């Protein structure tokens, strides 16, 4: 009796819990036992199913939406090398995997002009992520050198070729010049033209160059072929006074001829070369000794005498006096000495004398010495200092300027005897 009354009551409670008034899908009441079973099973299933884990912040959408640490959140978390949040990009400073851009990773990042995925510098893209080019410091195919600059003044030129003599580019510290050929100012070996260097440079006016400083061979120190009249005694010549004028001790065939002093002067001694001589006339003043010299000759400078006195074995008993020049104190000094003629003597103003160009004049204060006379030098007066006997050459015939007609400086040097 009790069980019969309880069944309708359970049915009513179930209907109320469902909220459908106890009706099923067809609008009819369902079986009470079936409903009770379904409800109990549902409750049991819900109690045994675990909830999603929302504490790790990784792995699924639930963790992202919950704000857990992850790449792209803008915070550099453990294991991340960078994190720029929404700015992460495989072409930005921080890539999508939270690692920084690097040259050679194959991704074109900020500041990179190329990135071929390697650190090779011998291909089209260097280890600095720049296109290969001459001057980048990396040797690429087609380049003979690459020193990291585009200068033409060092060992490697701006076209990445070796800087060599003849390329027209001056190699600083190695080449003196480079005109891409022989010019008046540059030899083929990129050195300055110099007679006697063995490098024949016709553009510089050389007709020969035998690589020495000898004047008695086929090529003189003026780089001209040896010839009678050049002033140098070569094999087969008995003399060479630098001209082909007769009557001055050496004829046009470079054979010796008698040397005669002028104005009743006596020939005291003649150098073996016939290019220098001592003349004497006792009553002539030392300031006028030039008139005693052979025709067209002049009083010797030190450089002329020292070049022409070889084997001159004569010892005079009187003073030998040569060219007269002005001293620094405006007086005049005369090149002179008293010793054997084979001895070279320094250029100085040993002996006081007179000269019209000098303010302080001594006048005729000495006589009865020897006039030291020299034959003219053919190159003197051409305007070029091209002979070892020349001290100067101004190319004119003025005697009152800085260079005298015998190619000697008009002022005496400050030397012994001044």
Total E-strand runs: 7
Total of DSSP H or I helical runs spanning 4+ residues: 4
Coarse shape = elongated
Low-confidence stretches: 1-66
- The percent of residues in helical segments reads 10-25%
Coarse structural class: little secondary structure
Topology pattern, helix = H, strand = E? HHHEEEHEEEE
Rg, alpha carbons: 56 Å
In whole angstroms, the N-to-C terminal distance is: 168 Å
Beta content:
5-15%
Largest beta sheet, briefly?
A: 7 strands, mixed
Mean pLDDT value: 81
How would you characterize this protein structure?
- It is a single chain.
- Residues 1-66 have low confidence and may be disordered.
- Strand 4 and strand 5 form a beta hairpin.
- The longest helix is centred in the first third of the chain and has 17 residues, at 2-18.
- The radius of gyration is 56 Å and the shape is elongated.
- It has helices spanning 2-18, 32-48, 61-65, 302-308, and strands at residues 266-270, 276-280, 298-299, 320-326, 332-337, 351-353, 370-374.
- The protein is mostly loops.
- Helix 1 packs across helix 2 (32-48).
- The protein has a domain at 242-418.
- It has 4 helices and 7 strands.
What order do the helices and strands come in, and which of them pair?
Elements: H1 2-18, H2 32-48, H3 61-65, E1 266-270, E2 276-280, E3 298-299, H4 302-308, E4 320-326, E5 332-337, E6 351-353, E7 370-374
Concise summary:
With 418 residues, the chain is low in regular secondary structure. It has four helices and seven strands, in the order αααβββαββββ. Strands 1, 2, 3, 4, 5, 6 and 7 form a seven-stranded mixed beta sheet that branches.
């Amino acid at each position: 009796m009790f069980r019969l009354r309880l069944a309708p009551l359970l049915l009513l409670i179930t209907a109320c819990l469902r909220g459908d008034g106890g009706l099923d899908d067809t609008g009819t009441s369902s079986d009470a036992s079936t409903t009770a079973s379904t409800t109990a099973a549902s409750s049991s299933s819900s109690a045994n199913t675990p909830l999603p884990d929302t504490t790790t912040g990784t792995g699924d959408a639930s963790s992202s939406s919950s704000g857990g640490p992850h790449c792209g959140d803008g915070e550099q978390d453990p294991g991340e090398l960078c994190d720029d949040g929404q700015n992460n990009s495989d072409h930005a400073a921080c890539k999508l995997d939270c690692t920084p851009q690097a040259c050679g990773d194959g991704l074109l990042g900020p500041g990179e002009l190329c990135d071929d995925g390697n650190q090779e510098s011998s291909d089209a893209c260097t280890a600095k992520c720049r296109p290969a080019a001459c001057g980048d410091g990396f040797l690429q195919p087609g380049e003979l050198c690459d020193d990291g600059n585009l200068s033409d003044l060092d060992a490697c030129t701006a076209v990445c070729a070796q800087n060599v003599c003849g390329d027209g580019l001056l190699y600083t510290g190695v080449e003196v010049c480079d005109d891409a050929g022989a010019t008046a100012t540059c030899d083929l070996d990129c050195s300055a033209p110099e007679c006697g260097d063995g490098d024949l440079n016709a553009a510089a006016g050389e007709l020969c160059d035998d690589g020495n400083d000898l004047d008695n061979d086929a090529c003189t120190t003026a780089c001209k072929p040896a010839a009678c009249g050049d002033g140098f005694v070569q094999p087969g010549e008995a003399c060479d006074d630098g001209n082909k004028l007769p009557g001055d001790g050496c004829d046009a065939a470079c054979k010796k001829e008698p040397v005669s002093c002028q104005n009743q002067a006596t020939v005291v001694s003649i150098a073996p070369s016939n290019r220098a001589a001592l003349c004497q006339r006792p009553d002539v003043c030392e300031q006028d000794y030039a008139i005693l010299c052979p025709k067209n000759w002049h009083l010797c400078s030190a450089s002329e005498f020292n070049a022409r006195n070889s084997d001159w074995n004569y010892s005079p008993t009187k003073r030998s006096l040569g060219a007269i020049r002005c001293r620094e104190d405006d007086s005049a000094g005369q090149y002179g000495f008293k010793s054997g003629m084979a001895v070279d003597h320094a250029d100085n103003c040993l002996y006081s004398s007179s000269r019209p160009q000098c303010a302080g004049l001594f006048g005729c204060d000495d006589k009865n010495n020897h006039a030291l006379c020299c034959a003219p030098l053919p190159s003197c007066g051409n305007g070029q200092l091209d002979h070892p006997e020349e001290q100067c050459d101004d190319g004119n015939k003025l005697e009152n300027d800085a260079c005298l007609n015998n190619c000697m400086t008009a002022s005496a040097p400050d030397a012994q005897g001044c």
